[in-house]
Give the backbone structure.
Amino acid sequence: MAKAGVLYVGTDNGLYIFSDPGGTGRWRLLPDVALANEQIIGLVAADSQSLVVATKQAFQRSDDGGRQWQEADAEDRMLFNFLNSQRVPVATVQGMGVWRYSEPPLSDCSLLAVLSGKQEVLLAVTADGKRMLRSDDGGKTWHDVSVTFQGRLSAFAPSSYHIDVVWAGTDTGQILRSDDRGRSWQHVGNVPHAVRCLAAVRVA
């Protein structure tokens, strides 16, 4: 039986939330915007209620799905060490990190995603944000992904609830989803500002 889901979208102007109450794949944008006027540069969601965000000014934590916020503690802040790294950022089911080696698996890339499973899949965005590539062999070979979007790809988020599902966002506010480990993509929705980070979780 499908479960309800929540997608948190960090943007250049606040945190937006998409909801799929019936688990039908019909995601809708909720009307309330959290942390309006704040640029969200990092986001980690443990579940549908508990999340931590990094803004340009502070680290904030919410335990009620983004309605109320408090200053994050030192342990929460450690989740955002990737922001101070010179290595290529990598999206995983645990949140954002950095590529495990000093050199990225693709020389001309600005962002990576690692999809866990029996066969690990890598997704990469080129430095100009205009192309997405996919690798089934740890980055030895890459293939262009056919995906239509406006602007530049700016964020990835493998879903914590299904190894085949991964999300992407653009600097024009488009939200994209793949249900087949990055092979094909569909447009799910839009937010009015550039997407900088994403987190997708199931409602318990």
